[in-house]
Amino acid sequence: FAELHAAVPGLPLASSRVLPGIVLRRDFAAYCPTDGELRALLVTEPLRPALTAPGVEFVVDSERQYQSSLRWIAKRTEALMKHLQSNDVKLLLSSVKQEDVVIYYAKLYGVSVVECLSSEEMALISEITGVSPYVPFGDTMDGEITETAVVTFCQPLLLVSKRCVHVGFASVCAFQPHCLILCGPVDGVNEQHAAAVQEAFTMLQQLFKTVDQ
């Protein structure tokens, strides 16, 4: 329920509504508008390539070597974004903050980015889509990326002064997510309404469980 409702203070209760899909309470780190369905990728690690393996020290002993390392990182990141573009990936959903070089090349190749998603949000998206997080920089960047989710729409959403991301997924199960936008004059009222709605859903869940048995 926590991931499927958003409380918005400062608006009358009558402004409450139900939206298809889910609302991610983050702003786009990069936004490239697209029409129609698109493919999304889940990531749980930085897409900026590391210069060394974990636990291995990398020593830079000259400015020239340092600049060469930055160029290698940029080329590798650009190659990854080209690979995503060739696989029609238009949206990155990341649980970690991405480096500026990733955001730069994402914008350049028309890939929207939403970062710093919670583990609960990532788990919900995986449950809806059946997709697991993508592991970048494997042995090769050739071939099709199979672990992508189908997104029916992806757009900015403004809830009073907070910028959010409103996204719809093609579900692989019977569950069709909708998000409840709960409005109220102050946070305390919104919390009471949210608790009441959650209790109502819990009661209905118990009722249907009894009927099924």
TrEMBL record:
One of the GO BP terms on file: chaperone-mediated protein complex assembly
Gene3D superfamilies in alphabetical order: GroEL (3.50.7.10), TCP-1-like chaperonin intermediate domain (3.30.260.10)
Domain of life: Eukaryota
Record protein name field: BBS10 protein
